[in-house]
Specification:
The protein has twelve helices and two strands. The chain has about 240 residues and is mainly α.
């Protein structure tokens, strides 16, 4: 069965729709996301039947929009439907009780968290790939103010999540014959790795594949370290100028 996952932009739209905002219903957002993912493969009943609809989506589609809130487990289940995301209940419990407690606050809907709080946790999950929690708290505090009053935020959690998701998608997308910069980077590294292997005449094809793949892995690791360093420069500059 094919997994039904959402891009970050679609998840932001979905969260907004669960608040009754954005002009589309939650079902319409999921329909649009599924249709976009199957645009090249063909949209058909058979294709949808081969797609596993996550239980969290089914539950939220049945829910009363006036009463929707999320437990930690539900935020984890929802978050794990986002591409490139791997959340755990243990990690989120630690975040809301310790690491970003002052940023997230207590559950705003009885014992459940709001869509904005869920979005903030998804943002934290993205940022922690390169930043420590102290840096995350400081930069997000520049955007989000009173936990109980979203009107005084510089930008709301869901709009912010949607904004950088849109930037990522624009860079990451395939546009006809034009490759995304990620594909171009990957292909360039692979090409250089294969070119390097031309000087190793005594290697078997299998040995060349092994060395080539590890060269690509090492190169991507260095590239990742570069982007991590660049990310920290922007954080340092932002906190220095606005702290």
């Amino acid at each position: 069965m094919e997994l039904f996952q959402l891009s970050r932009k679609s998840m932001a739209d979905f969260l907004l729709s669960l608040k009754g905002e954005g002009g589309h219903s939650p079902k319409q957002i999921l329909q649009q996301a599924w249709a976009a993912a199957h645009e090249k493969k063909g949209i058909s009943t058979e294709a949808f039947l081969d797609t596993k609809m996550p239980a969290i989506f089914e539950k939220l589609l049945r829910a009363d929009l006036q009463k929707i809130g999320f437990s930690i487990n539900e935020i984890v289940a929802l978050g794990n439907q986002i591409e490139f995301t791997h959340l755990s209940s243990t990690a989120l419990q630690n975040w809301v009780k310790r690491d970003v407690k002052d940023l997230i606050g207590s559950p705003q809907l009885g014992k459940k968290y709001s869509a904005d709080q869920a979005a903030m946790l998804f943002i934290v999950e993205d940022l922690k790939a390169t930043l420590d929690f102290d840096s995350i708290r400081k930069i997000l505090a520049l955007l989000f103010n009173d936990l109980d009053d979203r009107t005084d935020d510089l930008i709301g959690p869901i709009p912010f999540y949607s904004a950088y998701a849109a930037i990522f998608e624009k860079v990451h997308q395939h546009n006809g014959a034009e490759k995304s910069i990620y594909d171009q980077t990957e292909q360039c590294i692979k090409k250089e790795a294969l070119k390097t292997m031309e000087s190793f005449q005594d290697f078997t094809k299998n040995q060349k594949d092994i060395v080539s793949n590890i060269l690509v892995t090492a190169s991507l690791t260095v590239l990742s370290a570069y982007y991590k360093s660049l990310t920290k420069k922007y954080v340092t500059a932002t906190l220095f100028l606005n702290g």
